[in-house]
Amino acid sequence: MEDMALEMDQADGDGEPDRITWGNVLYSFVESEEAKALIASLPDLGNAGLAWERPLERFTVIMSNYQDQPHLLDPHLDSLLELLLPFVRDGDKEPRLCNLACRFLHIISKVRGPKAFVRRFPHEVGDVVPVLELLEQQNPADLESWQVHYILLLWLCMLVLVPFDLARFDAARPGPETPDGAHPTLMDRILNVAKLYVLQLDVSSYAASILISRFVTRPDVQKLRSPQFLDWIIEQLHHEMPSNSEFTIKHQFHAKNLLYTLALIFKHGKREDVLPYASTVLHRLKDLHFEASLNIALRKTHSKLFQWLGLSFLKPHLAPWRYQRGSRCLLDNLRSTSKELVVGATYPEPQEEDYEEVPEDVEEVIERLLLGLKDKDTDVRWSAAKGIGRVTGRLPKQLADEVVESVLEYFSAGESSTTWHGVLIAFAEFARRGLLLPSRLPDVVPHLCKALLYEEQFRMSRVSNQVRDATCYVCWAFARAYDPKDLQPFVNEIARGLVIAALFDRQLNCRRAASAAFQENVGRQGTFPHGIDLVTSLDYFAAATITNNYLNISVYVAGFPEYTFPIIDHLVEKKMIHLDSAICRLASKALHNLTPKAPTYMADVSKFVHQVGRSLSL
């Protein structure tokens, strides 16, 4: 384990100290033996009152050390499960011990992540019915046993994937008798218990959603139960969305869980299986207007569902018209100068498009996702941007260009900063997926240069900071997406914007984002003016201290003629009149230091500043 700490105490523009800290870096699960010893002590703690709290607390502390590096647990997950699952299997005999083992399992799942953790569960045929029976014995309303419900549902997520006809289980071990004397099939029992838990308000609803999506997309279940189950979900959603204003938190959680379940079904199901239901689900949901809810998670899940509905309408394939940079060599890029373009890229011949007719429902999906770009919450905008990128990648070239045009129209002075942020991350998705063709760059790059300096008038906004940060992400994506010859006409504009942002942006994260984007372009494009000379001065650590940026590094950068006048103009036009007085003072000092770099130009600037000052005083 390596401990390193570097602190920079010089104040940032907002008056807060800049700190760079390298915390604990781990190389292996060093407490594995201690963790196994704690698990081995469970039989002695099962009936010892509250004595189990201390070992559980210690186990929690051990696992918490690996939240930043959960992959280090992977070599030990199987052995931990082998120690804990026997207690779960005997849950009907030792319920207290089962509860305690599930608490340990939940801690592991929380640190490693349920998606990676669930794959480690055994999927033996003999466990299917016992695990289901143990889950049926649980009381969903028991708040002391929610970890048991969660772990059993996760385990069942793996068990329902066994490649055997479920009817064989009914013949070998019939289910409990119902009041009318019938024995429900295993298929119905699993669906009934999943319905019960998907409407819970704890984390077990998440596991139930995964269970449902995996189970109803099985070929045998899909044919017999999928239509009825989808109808049940739609009916529940209409029931949870009352016509009056009594849309309580409970209703919101139920609606979110059901929408998430639908999204997973359309995500994991085969297209030919879910396509017959996609249009019906879309039309029955669009009038519920979940996108107007105040619940962020509900709006985000609603966006995800429409994304996967849209993808189910379109044949999965890579768009033949997409931009492909081809093979490239980073070493060749670094060897090239600002006037030499890399010639090692290869371009495949465009293939002839072969598309099915695009259904009208796709237009409704795209419209909902475009509205999601304007959402007031960042998570919803990100979800909508990724959805638009995925759907556009399956459209014919002409329709995809119309989507890009629709997103471009959101770049207007009248749109809010949240809309600008959503549009920028959408363009980053387009570029990353090869959907933003070079012919569109003249329309996009001017907006990027404007967004790099974006500030809401009369106030300093958190979303304004996000706009500039997202713009740096777009520039970073451009560096990876485009061949140097396609980006060459815009290199000077992008380079100037990134240099100014890396030097003078008020926010530390924006300066570092601009620095990273600049370095990525220097390495992959090889055409940025004086890129190699500047990349060491505008690195991650140099961006940390804004005072040093204004007073020292800016003077060095201004020594290159391509950046001299843009730096001076930016300080005069933007930073001298900034809302933050500390930034104004730094800009004044920076202009003083820059005077030797362009004395004649600075004399004209001084006269201009003097005239503006006199007019303001009048």
Q: What would you note in describing this structure?
A:
This protein has 618 residues and is an all-alpha fold. The chain has a domain of 233 residues: Leucine-rich Repeat Variant (Alpha Horseshoe). The protein has 31 helices and four strands. The strands form two sheets. Strands 1-4 form a two-stranded antiparallel sheet. A two-stranded antiparallel ribbon has the order 2-3. Helix 18 runs antiparallel to helix 19 and helix 29 runs antiparallel to helix 30. It is globular and about 95 Å long.
What is the CATH domain class of the domain at 30-176 and 183-268? Answer: Mainly Alpha
Number of helices: 31
- Taking the alpha carbons of the first and last residues, their distance comes to 64 Å
Poorly predicted runs: 1-22, 337-350
Instruction: Return the structural class.
Output: mainly alpha
Taking all residues together, what is the mean pLDDT? 85
Q: What does the overall shape look like?
A: globular
Beta-sheet strand percentage?
A: under 5%
Taking the sheet with the most strands, its summary is: 2 strands, antiparallel
CATH-defined topology of the domain at 30-176 and 183-268: Leucine-rich Repeat Variant
- Using the 3D structure, state the CATH architecture of the domain at 30-176 and 183-268: Alpha Horseshoe
Strand line-up across the major sheet: 1-4
The portion of residues assigned to helices is 55-70%
Rounded to an integer, what's the Rg over CA atoms? Answer: 29 Å
Secondary structure tally: strands: 4
